[in-house]
Write a structure and sequence with these properties.
The complex is a heterodimer of chains A (161) and B (215). Chain A has 161 residues and is α+β, with helices and mostly antiparallel strands. Chain A is built from five helices and four strands; from the N terminus they run E-H-E-E-H-H-E-H-H. Chain A is globular, with a radius of gyration of 16 Å. Chain B has two domains: 82 residues, Winged helix-like DNA-binding domain superfamily/Winged helix DNA-binding domain (Arc Repressor Mutant, subunit A, Orthogonal Bundle), CATH 1.10.10.10; 96 residues, no CATH class. Chain B has nine helices and seven strands, in the order H-H-E-H-H-E-E-H-H-H-E-E-H-H-E-E. In chain B, helix 3 crosses helix 4. The chains are: A alpha+beta (161), B alpha+beta (215). At the A-B interface, helix 2 and helix 3 of A face helix 9 of B.
Amino acid sequence: MNTSAPAPAHHLAQLNIATLRAPLDDPSMKDFTDALDPINALADASPGFVWRFIEDGEKDATNLRPFGEDLLLNFSVWEGVDALWNFAYRTEHLDFLRRRREWFEHMREAYMVLWWIPSGTIPTVEEAKRRLDLLRANGPTPEAFDLRTPFPAPTHHDQHA
Amino acid sequence: MDHASIDAARALADPVRRRLYEYVAAAEGDVGRGEAADALGLQRTLAAHHLDRLVDAGLLEVTRRKVSGREGPGSGRPAKLYRRSGRELSLHLPPRDYELAARVLAEAVDRYGAEDALHAAARAEGERVGAGSGDIPLPEFLRDRGYEPEDAEDGLRLRNCPFHSLAREFPPLACGLNLELLRGALEARGEDGERARMAPAPGRCCVVVSKNNED
């Protein structure tokens, strides 16, 4: 066995959905849409970023609405919780989270879910939806959790238990 | 009763130790015994004794680093360096738990989507805090409120977040509260509230106060 700094066996998948207050081309959405490219570029360059969901041939996923006409989704994979936390909360991205009420409706249910995936794999939108439903039904569990209540990645032992 | 907090408070009752603690807490990087002793005009062994007492009390923590970059046998023992502990100590008598109350209130704001009300309340509180403080220089005003300001190219950076625990758990809420609080305070001092802006980075408060011509 090679024990010198093995690649992590798991990566962290993240889904976050938001209900638009107005269509993306509405003037009220300008600050948000203007920030899409720079913030996506910031994510792509962040330590621990692995993958994000985009439309074929496009720069982002804003035209894809698998969960409903008004529902934007942000779907990505990170090396771990810290990598995602540091991007979400310790970069310019934080200011857009602070202002999210300007562009998105309040959602009574959980709108963000995290779960562990085998590294090297890419989760599907259907799987992401299933994880969000799990979080909404059961609260945070190792199968579906959030940044306030993170769970550690499964260990080798867990997988074969 | 929280014995660790009482022990920490007792450790700071010694004036030499208190000066050492304040020196290390305000330092940019980790502090060695010799540096602390020289800065405060103390004998090195006395400084070392008090620094280690502050470590025992949980107020400082120790890191070891080879200062010269030498490696391997014969390169000497790594220097003992001190920094402020990440542990939070608070002493409330009679016992109080404002942090728990803050967490519950933040959760309620989050669940209800009441960010606008939170921001408005924070700005109003900032105006109260800042009212009548226009004669106090801004860095001193911020220092008195626990922000530990330091000059940087982009303005006054705040090395300490007074709402650290809450900001770890509810970053957009706590940082939004903090930003509005500071904007309200600046305005009440007769300054431009927009000088306070979000500039999050690891290891410091999320807000930076831009320079104006007088600073």
